[in-house]
Amino acid sequence: MSTLKIENLSKQYGDVTALEDVSFEIEDEFAVLLGESGAGKSTLLRCINGLTEPTSGYIALDGEEVRGSQTDVGMIFQQHNLVDGVSAYLNALTGSLDRVSMLKSMLQWQSREDKLRALEALETVGLLDESHQRVSQMSGGQQQRVGIARALVQDPRLLLADEPVASLDPSSAETVMGYLRKAAGEHDVTALVSLHQVNIAAYFGDRFIGLRDGEKLFDVRREELTPELIDDLYGSVETVGLADQEETVEEILHGDGDDPDDTAPPETVPQEIEA
Ligand SMILES: Nc1ncnc2c1ncn2[C@@H]1O[C@H](COP(=O)(O)OP(=O)(O)O)[C@@H](O)[C@H]1O
Ligand SMILES: [Mg+2]
User: Fold this and answer.
1) What is the pLDDT, as a whole number, of residue 234?
2) Residue 272 pLDDT more than 70?
3) Which protein residues are within 6 Å of ligand 1, measured from CB?
4) CATH code of 28's domain
């Protein structure tokens, strides 16, 4: 359980304003950051995890200012940054370490607690049986799930993910998002995930923060997310290639009216994902 507070955050790269006066607060939620390419999503996430220094503004986790990188902030990237040649288990076990430290640490004794935590994290993402498989032999979706497990091993209070499913096909993207949501839920961790796929975002998010040209355009809960807001964010639905799916987006956003629960986020990963 944790609270992320962003206050008046701005980031300037020379003449380019990547973020302008962005403020919001999320608490124990699965929040989605929406916006076109160049909107400032990555910059915001990088400011939060200390990879980029904001020009001005304030970031706090549970009331304490976040400065630089912290181990209690877990990050999942679009490109997973795993070590290909070794097993899923070793990748998960070595959590936040960089490649060199990882190779060193592989030669060292790991505590029993760390080993259990790595296996537990792999179980959370449905990869316990594949834990000894090399990452290079896994599918893109499985690799991304190892990335989630690795972030969980850090035992973060906040989980950040920058377009974690951008390079996956729609079905794998849905599976990975299902596990990410499940992981955040099981570990009681607040999550902020950037996505450009509106339909996936609408299905998995509790809370939606829209960025346009570095500014916060909206900050709404699931029931307040409307196709009009999405239109404002992307100019028009056609520009993001959703023209054919417009009805589906409507349905996802508001349900088809038959089942009062069908706009609710999935509580568990659907059965077929386990297969
Ligand atoms: N390291 C950088 N140097 C200069 N400009 C950058 C840098 N990173 C991002 N930008 C600019 O900041 C803006 C926001 O980029 P970014 O945060 O990557 O957006 P998004 O992740 O939503 O696509 C863009 O105009 C981008 O070109
Ligand atoms: Mg980006």
Assistant:
1) 87
2) no
3) 13, 16, 18, 35, 37-43
4) 3.40.50.300
